[in-house]
Design brief:
Two copies of one chain form a homodimer. With about 950 residues, chain A is an alpha/beta fold. Helix content of chain A is about 50%, strand content about 15%. In chain A, about 50% of the residues are buried.
């Protein structure tokens, strides 16, 4: 933290430093950037939160330097200090574009104000200086009753935030100044219109008076005058309205509407500051992962008037089509209007092309400007402009939001145009948005209302009739040829058949990594999980949300990307992978340095993943094979065996089935590594859980039901997640792992003989102590002795890292292992001491109250779990430099987590097939970023 | 590892180093000691196992130097190399005591042999040299038919091990040599008796021939001769017996008994080596925590004969009474006998005092020797001696085993005698043995047979009639005034009443930290847990072990110190704390540097602990109070409240009850700190779990049973240990913690006003993230605002450290906490990912197969959990240097764990009341050791 200290030392006495203020302020930005990098590099485990907290501290030092920047002083790189809007206004000034004069109050001033309740020292002097500067540049005076200067006041954080106060226009008007405006413009109607707009906006936004009251008065006036549009109202009407507005304000606030312009300005600035902490803003930040302490800047800009008649107007335009990405100017405008009219939707705006007809000069100037801006920013821009009596002004430019499709197309086009590099094209994609391209989605052009919202557990949309039992799902699909949605309190491995049959899954409990969520993501099937508002009554075959009762057979639609549950059938759209997508993915593959594998349990799943360019299987869960109908009975026989002989007989029958599974997988993954995890879950998961199933199994196995029940009770566990599973099973019942190893290597031998290139990796789950791995390896050695002459390929034996003790003793474990693979689902659960199945009862509360900055099941908890991972990599690589280290937990397809994996030096990430493109893109971005850093 | 490397480099070529061998061998011992210390200091987290593994490696280097040491070469410090017996024989030689000549084959030679199957290079030359040396000293020759030298061959590991081969006497005899022995001694009877003993012992121990066969032949001979004792048998009888013995050997081994003396010796040496790995030895090592790779030495000593008539004899003596500790010579001897006769119990030995009458000179020589040995070793000695025709020989000396009582008395006496320091007196106590002084125990003077053995989960013995339900336990005790043993599959918090009523608890599942075990240790009540051989059929009110059925009303006895279950009532003895115990504890208190607190939940428990010198409460579990009969219903109302108002009303009724509890505790702990943990367990633990209870609660609460059941089902958790508990409850239902904090501080205020000195410490459980602690603290702040003027004492707020994430982020947490307290029960479970309630299914297997070196629930896993603890202390102290750090998990009273806590610098340990003296002693020992190191 050298720089921070330096700064603090230099400025520990504010009084004596005014002389060096100016000199340093311009360098400060760079210093802070360095500081941030220093902080980030210092502690790989820390989240961006911390960095911001620290730079927040720096902020309160910074405010002593300079609180206000003229548009002539800033630049686009100064977003942290000036906000996005302010930085871009300054940048446009630098480019010589027609930007109305003004200045920006810094985010530091905002933070200082929010912390202390006061303005920074010297703020008011600075404000006066800057007002004077604008007045002199504009040749007008703020609050002057002859030639008045009016201002717009806008908030502008580093990141655009719809939840905050937006804009107050026409600030500086009162009963006297409005006369000056008439003098100045000769347009009384415009002046009074502006005045009543100002009162309305200011009162609504700054004073908190319900804006419906003003709308109501305006409507009343239209009614009284018998007109339908405001344009038809007269100057007298507006005067009358202004009186009414003032009365409304007094009634609501018990104070007169402030008439003094400087007081208006100061109240507006405070209102912008305070809007940072209003509820909507806080919610928006939470939803969008924006830190709470970056603060907002305030832009004070001299007004230009789009409401001065038919040669005036206002509009919004994109340099390219934000929906398709097509390279075509795209926008809308309204004549004789101020900014909010375009948004308000009272009048229908015209297409931007129309401007060419109405004001060809303005249009061509606008074209010139948009080209200049796009070239300068090298990205698609979203521009706001106003025309005042034929004179064009640009009020804002920012990077234009776009659809996932458009993002791909714009980036590819810009690379082809030579505007940006391929790396930049990659960095501009939001990996999470790719997801929407890979799954069907609800056609949002029709409106609908959700009856409940759960966790968006597996993306994509699905629609079908509701069923409550796995068997019903299978029956309906097979016999009635209908699509079904399986609704359950929670799913268990027994529901696999039903989940396969269903279009989507809805559960009332369980989080983002509950059984339903994990399996659905693996299957690429939509899932809404943990929808706690619904009460599922499986036995009554219905679920209830408040007064709504949904019965078996009713149709619902799920949106697994948003968590919404909708009654009835909605129209879907399926997006195909376009050529631009292909191009971007090809570039990404070239640029990434980590491999991307897939978590897949069957040949077909492997095929899907391989089509998405997966470079191997990072996790094949053998237990999923155990649930298939033709073998679950054998599995149960194996578990319930009373003697080793019985157990071995059952295993012998399972062996060829497993071998066939592995052959499918090896074939699909010809030439690529395949990591197969030996049996992991506790045995009772395979046993029947309902009375009905119990009867069936008892009769199939010809054992008395009571005996079966008692055997199952014996297998019951208090905390199954921490129980007799993983290698603990493999060590106490070695025959199971022996069968699996024979199946894996047997399949590999046969595939190899058929000319398939096999790279099997045998993975031992839940190792916490090197001696466990040693014990299992000894068992593997013993059982493969006879096969050895036939094994003409290399195979690896390694372990999952999924309990903290494995991380802490990774040096010992690494000596026994060819590879380590982080099972971050279980590692997160054990590190936190939180069961994913039970977290529902408090996790939402924790996220709401920001007790957890993010759901650790969704993105790697870098401070806790991440520290263990880093420790593992360091200890493991030190002990065994050739060891291969990857991740196969759910986080392996989550972009932030992928970036963390790159940072700590993993060899690969692995995720569900439909996540593979997301992971590839994230891996490419991480690689580019780490190259840029070094 | 500097020294190891040095040694290796110096000796990388064995051929060229013979010249420096001798010079270095004497220094080597010291080097190895340094090496060990170096290794131990290098890695605080490593267990003694590792050190041994490493020094094992050193061993195979060492064997090239010198495999055999004459008794004139060794010393008592060389136990690692010469074993305990060999080192002490050499030491006695150095002291000038009458020790028959001989030599010791090193443990390294043994290890080399066991690893490679060969003797170390040059071994046979060395052996020949040493044989020649003894022959020359004794003036006899091994295998000589005129004047033969005979040997005894004995094993002797560093630690005495009953499981190993013990002794072969009279080695070197055959049909020819026996004549030489007659020549030499003129005692044919003694010679033939020695010969037949030799064949019998050698065949049994070395050749593995069932010794019953020889006994049978001997009995046959007695019968034929019509005599009752061997002494009555003649020379001819022995000759005849010898022929029979040889025949027995040939029949059993299909080989002739080896006649060549050198072959006998070599076979005997190999037999000693191999006995290291026999099953009994392995089991013994496992039970006594002795490393497998330290090997055994072999002592070859020239024979002296106690069977040469009435002026010969053999005996065993202790320098003080090993049972009481009294300073009085204590022992037994037999005339005309060899060593094994004393042990065999065929003839009744005489008291040592008798020797004074029979052979006064020998006796006074023996007294002189025992005084010399005790002074020299400064500890009570266990001496073996033989008298050959009036000549006294000492064959062995070792530290005498003693009872816990004797250990205390001997130590205190020796301090008073100026023989040892107080520190040594403390170091000599086995903290675990103190346990037996604190609980009643089975009177072992009567023999008995256990019907089953479970885990020794809570020490002490208890006896009573068997009951299977908590209510039955209460009823029987209250109404029938009888003592009961509660037997259950496993206990739950609902059984608390019954556990209180019962004398002891027996469970069939659950480990050393299962509910039953933890609660019983807290109550100081005997418990045998996880007794997996018994099948508990609670509904039939019986349990079954094989063919034995134990029904309600049958009487059983439990030994919670050994895990034994015995049918019927056994006699008990209760040991009082003697004055010596008090003295030792006073010394220990002075010497320890860590505080010792107690885990206690009630005033009476606190009183017990304080009588044992506890220095505060380290953990008061408020939930235990919730189960008391008068409040459990209120607790249930609180949990099942449908509205906040209902919940608050129930809490309001609980408040005065909790306050009263805390007042009792503060009064009992006047002047000492009291850490109170806020509610920790998941709420469903408080709800009824049986149909019967459910009915009762439903009727009490006047809610329909079905509704109650559904509410309870809602609270069900898949993994309750990782669920909605601890601060997660406190954060989501803040009213509960608010009530508790009001009760704690309210009680403290009232106590303070009554003149009690209070030091409350409020402990927040299950914190994994600093923001959780912050949130709870904010709640505490809010609720205590009104109390503040009345709080005229300091109180602390801190947290348990019981999930890995808390350790990894201890720097952040420490900034929010006044103290941290390791909850190592949960921390061990989460670090390993093992539930203590479910571990029973594999843990025994793991311990048997040495996959885990020890049960991590019993002693801190220093490599894994310990590393996290160390990290916590480092991060925590760095962030907050004044933070208080302790441990309140079950490990807080386990000596090895206490030592580890000292090592990493904890401020206190805390354990159940009856463990407090153990912890004080262990803490004193740790403090002394760490002082000695520095």
């Amino acid at each position: 933290m050298g720089i921070l200290k330096q700064i603090k030392e230099k400025f520990h006495s504010r009084e004596t430093i005014s002389s060096v203020k100016r000199e340093l302020s311009s360098n400060l930005k760079d210093s802070l950037k360095d500081l941030k990098e220093e902080l980030e590099n210092n502690d790989c485990g820390c989240e961006s939160d911390d960095v911001v907290v620290d730079s927040g501290d720096v902020g309160s030092d910074r405010v002593s330097l300079k609180s206000i920047y003229s548009f002539h002083e800033g630049a686009k790189e100064m977003k942290d200090l000036l906000g996005g809007k302010g930085a871009n206004l300054a940048e446009m000034k630098r480019l010589g574009l027609p930007v109305p004069e003004g200045f920006t109050i810094t985010t530091d001033a905002c933070n200082f104000f929010l912390e202390t309740g006061n303005y920074p020292k010297g703020f008011h002097d600075e404000l006066a200086e800057h007002l004077a500067e604008v007045e002199s540049k504009m040749g007008k005076k703020f609050g002057d009753i002859e030639n008045p200067l009016l201002f717009s006041v806008r908030s502008g954080a580093k990141i655009s935030m719809p939840g905050m106060m937006d804009t107050v226009l026409n600030l500086g008007l009162n009963d006297a100044v409005v006369q000056g405006l008439i003098n100045q413009t000769g347009n009384a109607r415009c002046a009074y219109d502006s005045y009543r707009r100002f009162i309305q906006m200011f009162s609504d936004i700054v004073l908190g008076v319900d804006h419906a009251k003003f709308e109501h008065a305006l409507e009343g006036m239209r009614e009284v005058r018998g007109v339908t549009s405001d344009i038809e109202l007269t100057v007298e009407d507006f005067k009358e309205l202004i009186s009414q507005y003032k009365a409304i304000v007094f009634e609501a606030t018990r104070e007169q509407f402030p008439t003094e312009p400087i007081k208006q300005l100061s109240k507006a600035i405070e209102a912008v500051f305070n809007s940072w902490t209003n509820e909507r803003a806080i919610t928006y930040r939470k939803l969008n992962d924006i830190p709470d302490d970056i603060g907002t800047a305030v832009n004070v800009q001299s007004m230009v008037f789009g409401n001065k008649g038919e040669t005036s107007g206002t509009g919004v335009a994109f340099t390219r089509n934000p929906s398709t990405g097509e390279k075509k100017f795209y926008g809308e405008f309204l004549t004789n209007a101020q900014g909010e009219d375009v948004v308000a939707g009272i009048r229908t705006p015209q297409k931007i092309e129309k401007l060419q007809e109405i004001m060809p000069n303005v249009y061509s100037q606008l074209i010139e400007i948009k080209d200049k801006l796009e070239q300068h920013y090298t990205d698609m821009q979203d521009i706001e402009f106003t025309i005042e009596e034929g004179e064009l002004y640009v009020l804002q430019t920012r990077t234009g939001k776009r659809t996932a499709h458009a993002a791909l197309r714009v980036a590819v086009d810009m690379v082809e145009e030579g505007l940006i590099t391929k790396e930049e094209a990659i960095l501009r994609q939001d990996p999470n948005m790719l997801n929407t391209l890979l799954h069907p989605s609800i056609d949002k052009s029709h409106s609908y209302e959700a009856i409940a919202k759960g966790l968006p557990a597996s993306p994509g949309a699905a629609c079908g009739i509701v069923v409550f039992e796995s068997d019903d799902a299978v029956n309906k699909v097979e016999n009635e040829d209908t699509k079904v949605i399986l609704v359950r309190r929670e799913t268990s491995p027994e529901d696999i058949q039903g989940m396969h049959a269903a279009e989507g899954i809805l559960t009332s409990t369980g989080g983002m990594t509950s059984h339903a969520a994990v399996v659905c993501r693996g299957m690429g099937k939509p899932c809404v999980a943990g929808c706690s508002k619904i009460r599922v009554m499986e036995s009554d075959k219905k679920f209830v949300i408040g007064d709504i009762i949904v019965k078996e057979g009713d149709i619902i639609t799920l949106d697994g990307s948003t968590g919404e549950v909708i009654l009835g059938e909605l129209k879907m759209k399926k997006t195909e992978l376009s050529g631009h997508f292909r191009t971007i993915m090809d570039w990404a593959k070239d640029m990434k340095t980590m491999s991307v594998r897939t978590n897949a349990d069957t040949g077909p799943d492997c095929k899907i993943a391989r089509d998405f360019d997966a470079e191997g299987v990072g996790l094949c869960r053998t237990e999923h094979m155990f649930f298939e109908e033709d073998r679950i009975m054998k599995v149960r026989e194996m578990i319930l065996s009373k003697t080793d002989t019985q157990r071995e007989a059952a295993l012998k029958e399972l062996l060829p089935m497993q071998k066939a599974d592995f052959k499918d997988i090896f074939k699909a993954m010809d030439g690529l590594p395949v990591t197969v995890r030996l049996l992991d879950p506790p045995l009772h998961e395979f046993l029947p859980s309902t009375e009905e199933k119990l009867t069936e199994v008892a009769s199939n196995m010809t054992i008395p039901k009571n005996e079966l029940r008692s055997m199952i009770n014996q297998l019951h566990e208090v905390n199954p997640m921490l129980g007799h599973r993983g290698c603990r099973l493999g060590i106490t019942f070695p025959a199971i792992y022996q069968m699996q190893v024979l199946a894996i290597l047997g399949a590999a031998i046969e595939c190899h003989e058929e000319g398939i290139e096999v790279h099997p990796e045998i993975e031992v789950p839940l190792v916490g102590c090197h001696s466990e791995l040693k014990a299992v390896k000894a068992g593997i050695e013993a059982v493969t002795k006879d096969l050895r002459p036939m094994i003409k390929f290399d195979y690896k034996v390694g372990t999952m890292i999924e309990v903290p003790r494995a991380c802490l003793t990774a040096d010992e474990i690494a000596l026994e292992a060819d590879f380590l693979s982080f099972g971050t689902n279980d590692l997160t659960q054990t590190t936190f001491g939180i069961s994913r199945d039970d977290a529902g009862k408090f996790l939402n509360h924790y996220l709401d109250k920001k007790i957890f900055p993010a759901d650790p099941a969704a993105t790697i908890d870098q401070k806790g779990v991440g520290r263990l991972m880093q420790m593992t990599v360091e200890l493991g690589r030190k002990a065994n430099p050739n060891i291969e280290i990857g991740i196969c937990g759910e986080h392996g397809g989550e972009p932030k987590s992928v970036e963390f994996c790159q940072k700590i030096g993993l060899d690969y990430v692995s995720c569900s097939p439909y996540r593979v493109p997301v992971a590839i893109l994230a891996a490419a971005q991480s690689a580019i970023k780490s190259r840029n850093l070094s």
